[in-house]
Amino acid sequence: FLEKELMPKTDQGQFIIKADMPVGTKLSETNKAVLIMEEKILEYPDVKSVSAIVGSTTGAGARDIVQRLGSHQGQLIVELKEKREKKTTDVVQELQEQFEAEKGLKDVSIEFTLQQGVISGAVAGAAKPITIEIKGEKLDVMEGIAREIEGELEKIDGVFGIEDDVPEPSPEIRINVDKDKASIFNINVVDLARMAQMALRGYIPSRFKEKGREIGIRVRLREKDRDSYDKLYRIRITSPDGGRVPLGSVAAFEKGVGPSSIKRMGQERTIVVYADIIDRKISDVIADVDAMLNGMDFESGYMVKLTGESEEMNESFNSLRFALILSIVMVYMIMAAQFESLTQPLIILFTVPLSLIGVLLALFATSTSVSVVAMLGVIMLGGIVVNNGIVLVDYTNILMGRGKALMDAVVEASLARLRPILMTALTTVLGLLPMALALGRGAELRAPMAISVMGGLMVATFFTLVVIPSIFVLESEIRGKIKRFFAR
Question: H helices then E strands: how many in the chain?
Answer without folding.
Answer: 15, 15
